[in-house]
Structure formats: structure tokens, C-alpha cells
Amino acid sequence: MPRRSIPRPAAPVCRIVDLTTGKTVEKPSLPIVCDRIRFWREKAGLEQKALAKAVGVTANAVSNWENGRGRPDLNLVPDLCAALGISLYDLFGLQGPSDTLTAKEQQLIGRIRQLSPAHYAVTEQLVDGLIAAQEAADARPVRQLICYARSLAAGRGDPTEFEEEGTPILVYDTRETQRADCVFHVSGDSMEPVYHSGDQVLVSHVPEASDLRPGEVGAFICGNETYIKVFEEDGLHSLNPAYKTMHFDQADSVYLIGRVTGILSPDQIVPEADAEKYGKQ
Length: 281
Fold this sequence. Notes:
- The protein is of the alpha+beta class.
- It has 2 domains: about 15-90, lambda repressor-like DNA-binding domains (434 Repressor (Amino-terminal Domain)); about 140-275, Umud Fragment, subunit A (Ribbon), CATH 2.10.109.10.
- Helices cover about 30% and strands about 20% of the residues.
- The chain has 10 helices and 10 strands.
- The protein has helices at about 30-45, 50-55, 60-65, 75-85, 90, 105-110, 115-140, 160-165, 175-180, 270-275; strands at about 15, 25, 140-150, 165-170, 180-185, 200-205, 215-220, 225-230, 235, 255-265.
- Helix 2 packs across helix 3.
- The radius of gyration is 39 Å and the shape is rod-shaped.
- Mean pLDDT is about 80; it is low at about 1-15 and about 155-165.
């Protein structure tokens, strides 16, 4: 009679059961620190014995760490990071402060670390001063003026059309900007050396020419052209001696746009990147 083989019983499967629910609990994954030790050791090209010797433990201890049967003592973590050439953030898979820095920022930090103690202290004071100035600037009040595309000394149109042509511009609220209603660009050199071509001038609207006193600078429309000139009783004068005085008679139409109160400097203009936080466009 042929012999029959008796099948062996399957090996029992070890299960972990939650005593509260009675459900099988999934096998826990390998702790991240254990997985990271293996990853960084292999990346550094170290054998378990070499890492163990550098840290002062046995090779079995390193093997136990990497297989999740144990974890390194906290006192060994600094030596472990030094042996692997990594940071504490790398070992535990955390995002370190340098991870959020750009390459340029990391390069700058590296250069700062090369400074002598004295120069480092000066740099620290400079950075503190810049941050304080920036915070003070951010807290400065702002106001809105109207900026016109047409330039003084060249252009066409009626002064009544300015409100429709202008676009809002945010400026910091200073003594100079408080006296102005609008901003114009200067074109030409007739008002040099005070006003240069490309300058932005602050203008305060006035209803009549009589409000502008002799010797003051104003923005005018004469015929189809706009000008920035010095108002005198005999006409409109240029600061540049190369230009003649503009004389007018009863038949000429001369309109006063407003009094020029100063030059708008770039640092008085609120940057577009900061304009949104003031709730204005």
C-alpha cells in the first residue's frame, strides 16, 4: 500500500489583538529613527561595526536599532549624528531651519560666519537697525494722491479732464504729501537745476491764479500745452536761463492747475508689494 504524506499544519500567524475592540492591530511600522539610521549609515558608506565603534556601542546594538528592536539612548544621539555627519533634524526626519532658506540666504549665512567677532557684532547691529527702520516704515500712515500720465511742459487737454485721466497712487503721509492733491511728471530741462526731467512733482490744486503768489512754482496749461514754471506778474519764468520768459496778453488762455509743493521722492511712494496690506489699490 502506497504511503501517503501527511500535510504539515501551517505555522501559526502571530496576531496582535486590541482587547477593547477585539480587532487585529496592524503591525507597527519601523520607527522613523531606526529607518533613518540605516539610511544615513549606508549613505555615508559605513558598516555597522564602524558606526558602532564611532559611537561606542556593539555592532549588535546598531543592528537592533536598524531593525526596530531597540533605539539609541538619548545620550548617544549627538555622537550618532556626528558619526553620520548629519543634524538632529536629519536623524529624526524633521524640517530644519535651513530647509526653508534659499540658496542665496544660506550663502549669506555662511559668509557671516566667516566674520571676526568685532565685525560680527557690527553686522548684528546693522541688521537690527534695518529691521527697526523697516518696522517703523511699515507702521507709517499713508494717503492716496492722483497721479496723471501727462507731463508738465508737454501735453494736450483741458484741466477739467484731469480727474478722469488720473490713477490713484499711495504715498506715505508726510508734511510734504499732506499739502498735495496730485502728482505730475516733469518733462524737459526748463526748470533745472531744481526740477529735472523725469521727476515727479507734488501739486496742490488752487481754484484761481490769484492764489499763487509771485515767485512760487505752479503747474499751468497754456493753450494746448502744460508747463511747470515760476509765476511772476510779467509772465511765467523758467529756472534754466536758456529759456525765455513766457508773456501773455488778454487774448491768451492760461489756466492754473495748482501750486507745485515739492518733489515726490521714491522712498515716499508705498511699494506695490505693500499697498495691498493698506486695503487700497
